[in-house]
Design brief:
Elements (H helix, E strand, L loop, with lengths): L1 E6 L4 E10 L2 E11 L6 H19 L3 E5 L7 H20 L4 E4 L1 H9 L6 H11 L9 H27 L1
Parallel strand pairs: 1-4, 4-5
Antiparallel strand pairs: 1-2, 2-3
Helix pairs in contact: 1-2, 3-5, 4-5
Length: 166
């Protein structure tokens, strides 16, 4: 099973493709889509949409997991991130990919075992789970990999529940 994890943003979109076979997690590709400040919003959204779609076409995930919007005090930023999430979800939907959404609390719980874990703890667990030599940078990339790990664990649990019911 190949999962694409996404940490959405308008300036930086973190992404991470992770393969799950049995209990083994293997990083396939990860990085960031970055857009230039002072570029019209519609151009930035188009860049995010096209880049996300190209990544999906190249790495062929089985599903997409995206972090739910955490509404902070900056409403303008929250709207821009929401729009970026929308174009990423659209790109996945156009490709017929199942989409899962996770709150930051759910991601932390799945990766660290504690919903209020600090960012550094999540990053170190991502490094450990994926056997990476260092924590991926920028932070958005590590966050995207954490979302992918969260979904990989959740997908296994969902499958086990279905097996028990049958």
């Amino acid at each position: 099973m190949r999962v694409l994890g996404i940490d959405p943003g308008i300036a930086i979109v973190g992404f991470g493709f992770v393969d799950k076979e049995g209990h083994k997690l293997t990083p396939v590709q990860y990085g960031a889509i970055q857009t230039e400040a002072h570029t019209p919003q519609e151009d930035r959204l188009l860049q995010v949409y096209e880049s996300a779609g190209a990544l999906m076409d190249k790495y062929k995930p089985d599903s997409v997991a995206i972090e739910k919007l955490f509404f902070n005090r900056n409403v303008t930023t929250a709207f821009a991130v929401g729009e970026a999430r929308g174009v990423i979800i659209l790109a996945a939907a156009q490709r017929g990919l199942p989409i899962a959404e996770y709150t930051p609390l759910q991601v932390k719980q799945a990766v660290v075992g504690y919903g209020k874990a600090e960012k550094r703890q999540v990053q170190e667990m991502v490094k450990m789970f994926l056997k990476l030599s260092s924590v991926p940078k920028p932070d958005d990339v590590a966050d995207a990999l954490a979302v992918a790990i969260c979904h990989a664990h959740s997908a296994v649990l969902t499958q086990k529940i279905k097996e028990v019911k049958h």
